[in-house]
Design goal:
Organism: Levilactobacillus koreensis
Strand content: 15-25%
Number of helices: 9
Pfam family, one: ROK
Mean pLDDT: 89
CATH class of the largest domain: Alpha Beta
Strand order of the largest sheet: 7-4-1-2-3-13
CATH topology of the largest domain: Nucleotidyltransferase, domain 5
Protein name: Transcriptional regulator
Largest sheet: 6 strands, mixed
Number of strands: 13
Family: Belongs to the ROK (NagC/XylR) family.
Shape: globular
Helix content: 25-40%
CATH superfamily of the largest domain: ATPase, nucleotide binding domain
Structural class: alpha/beta
InterPro entries: ATPase_NBD, ROK
Radius of gyration: 19 Å
Distance between the termini: 33 Å
Number of domains: 2
Length: 306
């Protein structure tokens, strides 16, 4: 085993937010975030500024990205939640701009790597990971190995078409899309977050209750379909919504109800990702280790809470 390269700047680029942190000595610190810029030059400038402001002797940068990430070619193929990231050599571009080795991996795959390494899937071989955010991403591990697929598309559950109108799982079950649906139904100009809509639903807003209920319904149908198709030992939920009190238990109950209704003799073991919003960052670090010839052993990850 080679010496672990540290510290590492871990970056998670999402559709609405870019998160980052510093990994060293099995510890994730200096966590922060900023809104995802509208263009690639703006994002690149911001990442360069983050690295410069942290002023640490980074051994490398580990990046989590949306979409079909080709870790060998070093680009996103097809589409992603951040359109301007697609179809150019992002890995090589970042290495040149940041001046250190760079690894890239799909965000849901990063969550899977983190959870299979040190998280809530380390004790099972076969697991599904569903990451709920701007869209719905996912990943699979079978016999402990991350599945990529011929076109690096395994786990892109959000593309599943869910109804005759052609609406996808991401369109119907994403909290971000749910908040936009609420704004549309209320005919308001003010943008809402998913948390806003949950709060309004709790306070008796019937339109908010309708939107939340529909989102949960579609989430349960999609996850039920995954369970009966792939029969995993466990299904882990990631993304900010996974930290919402009662959310995972409610989803498991809904899935189990569908199994009973359709006489599927299965038991749903649904859990939140251990690392919640940090899963993509920690998994990106593991991807960096793997690409640099180091397979870290399992241990006790410590995280600074900020």
């Amino acid at each position: 085993m080679t010496q672990k390269p540290e510290p590492i700047l871990a970056i998670d680029i999402g559709g609405t937010t870019v998160k980052y942190g510093v990994w060293a000595a099995e510890n994730l610190t200096h966590k922060n975030r900023f809104n995802t810029p509208k263009t690639w030059p703006e994002l690149l400038d911001k990442l360069i500024a983050v690295k410069r402001e942290l002023a640490l002797p980074f051994a490398g940068v580990a990046v989590s990205l949306p979409g079909g990430v080709d870790t060998v070619v070093g680009k996103i193929s097809g589409t992603s939640a951040v359109d301007y990231l697609n179809e150019f050599p992002i890995k090589a571009t970042l290495r040149t701009a940041l001046g250190v080795p760079v690894s890239i991996q799909n965000d849901a795959n990063c969550a899977a790597l983190a959870e299979a390494w040190w998280g809530n899937a380390k004790d099972v071989d076969d697991a599904i990971y569903m990451i709920i955010g701007t869209g719905i991403g996912g990943a699979m591990t079978i016999n402990g190995q991350l599945m990529a697929g011929q076109d690096n598309f395994t786990g892109e559950f959000g593309y599943m078409v869910m109804n005759p109108a052609g609406e996808t799982f991401s369109q119907l079950a994403s909290p971000v899309k749910m908040a936009a649906r609420y704004q549309r139904l209320k005919e308001l100009s003010t943008a809402f977050t998913a948390q806003d809509v949950f709060d309004l639903a709790n306070n008796g807003d019937t339109i908010a209750q309708q939107c939340v209920g529909e989102m949960l319904n579609w989430l349960s149908i999609g996850t039920f379909n995954l369970y009966v198709s792939l029969n995993p030992q466990r299904l882990l939920i990631g993304g900010g919504i996974s930290a919402r009190p009662g959310f995972v238990a409610d989803l498991q109950q809904r899935i189990q109800h569908l199994m009973h209704q359709h006489k599927a003799a299965l038991t749903a073991d649904v859990r939140a990702c251990r690392f919640l919003n940090d899963a993509n960052l920690i998994g990106a670090v593991r991807q960096f280790y793997v690409e640099n010839g180091d397979e870290p052993a399992a241990g006790a990850v410590r995280m600074e809470v900020r």
